[in-house]
């Protein structure tokens, strides 16, 4: 088909980069240098691993909306829902804005839907993220409870489970298990993700404590299912483990996709996460009819949740 005809009636090609943090994978889009807007149903199509690009989350780089912040960071799950935090994504975000020459700073301040996080580029593709102070007050998570506790009892699927509830900007439920390999991730994960006590749903972590400095973790993510790694989930799991007296302040967390180092000095302190960010390939695509990367998404307008 001639270049001319091919250009007719089609939106400009959308440039994107495919990245991952320990196998938690992302489509990353610079919405500063190119116009960008995608509806939830198009995000769902693009996240499909057979019919689309395939990713756990879409990460969007936008101009800052606050003073003394370098960028705005928007996160969309594979199901098209817009969410408040993505730890593995934050490391990829830092690597992306440097590689795309959108900044030459070593320490980058980024505005998310729930606050500001600080990203520090290290050596050999490592990035340290100040993930902010965890929130355990139930209404702020949100989690339905009469009072704040370290461990809650939740009825699910005819059984009673114990879990901790923590927000890293996004909501997490954390269960302590004997062995992540035999943990009921596929069954309890989706039931707890959409449990009524998590009115905004939740990411569900299954934490195995090896010793006070090492843990293993699997996470069934809100809006994405089980992923190979979850950065905010690792932070929430260490917070839960520390509050339960099971972990020290510096923990190596082994996820299916690799290892993160998480540090938390206790209540009121931020959670620090250290790990890799990997670029897989750069691509461009003409979006199928209906979606034009031509207008900026309305700020703060959450994507429609899948019914
Ligand atoms: N994979 C991400 C978590 C995405 C969060 C999203 N699943 C939600 O909160 O709905 C991470 O590394 O923190």
Automatic annotation (TrEMBL):
GO molecular function: diaminopimelate epimerase activity
Listed InterPro entries: DAP_epimerase_AS, DAP_epimerase_DapF
Region span, Disordered: 283-307
Bias (Basic residues): 295-307
EC category: isomerase
Active-site residue numbers: 86, 230
UniProt: substrate binding residues: 24, 57, 77, 87-88, 170, 203, 221-222, 231-232
Site (Important for dimerization): 281
Site feature Could be important to modulate the pK values of the two catalytic cysteine residues, where: 172, 221
Keywords: Amino-acid biosynthesis, Cytoplasm, Isomerase, Lysine biosynthesis
Pathway per the UniProt entry: Amino-acid biosynthesis; L-lysine biosynthesis via DAP pathway; DL-2,6-diaminopimelate from LL-2,6-diaminopimelate: step 1/1
Chief location of this protein within or outside the cell: cytoplasm
Organism superkingdom: Bacteria
Family listed: Belongs to the diaminopimelate epimerase family.
Function, as annotated: Catalyzes the stereoinversion of LL-2,6-diaminopimelate (L,L-DAP) to meso-diaminopimelate (meso-DAP), a precursor of L-lysine and an essential component of the bacterial peptidoglycan.
Protein name per UniProt: Diaminopimelate epimerase
């Amino acid at each position: 088909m001639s270049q001319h005809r091919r250009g007719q009636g089609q939106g400009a090609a959308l440039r994107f980069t495919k990245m991952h943090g320990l196998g938690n994978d992302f489509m990353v889009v610079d919405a500063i240098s190119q116009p960008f807007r995608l509806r939830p149903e198009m995000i769902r199509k693009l996240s499909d691993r057979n019919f689309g690009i395939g990713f756990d989350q879409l990460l969007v780089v936008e101009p800052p909306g606050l003073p003394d912040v370098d960028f705005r960071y928007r996160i969309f799950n594979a199901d098209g829902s817009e969410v408040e935090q993505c730890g593995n994504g934050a490391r990829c975000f830092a690597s992306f804005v440097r590689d795309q020459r959108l900044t030459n700073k070593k320490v980058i301040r980024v505005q998310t839907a729930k606050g500001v996080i600080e990203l520090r580029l290290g050596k050999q593709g490592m990035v340290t993220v100040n993930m902010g102070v965890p929130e355990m007050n139930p209404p702020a998570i949100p989690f339905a409870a009469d009072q704040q506790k370290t461990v809650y009892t939740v009825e699910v699927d005819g059984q009673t489970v114990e879990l901790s509830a923590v927000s890293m900007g996004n909501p997490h439920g954390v269960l302590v298990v004997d062995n992540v390999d035999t943990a009921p991730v596929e069954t309890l994960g989706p039931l707890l993700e959409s449990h009524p006590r998590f009115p905004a749903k939740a990411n569900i972590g299954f934490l195995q404590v090896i010793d006070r400095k090492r843990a293993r973790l699997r996470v069934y993510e809100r809006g994405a299912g089980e992923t190979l790694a979850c950065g905010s989930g690792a932070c929430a799991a260490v917070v839960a483990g520390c509050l339960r007296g099971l972990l020290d302040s510096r923990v190596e967390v082994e996820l299916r996709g690799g290892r993160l180092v998480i540090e938390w000095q206790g209540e009121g302190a931020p959670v620090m996460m250290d790990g890799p960010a990997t670029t897989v390939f750069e691509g461009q695509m003409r979006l199928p009819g209906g979606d034009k990367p031509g207008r900026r998404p309305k700020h703060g307008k959450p994507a429609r949740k899948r019914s």
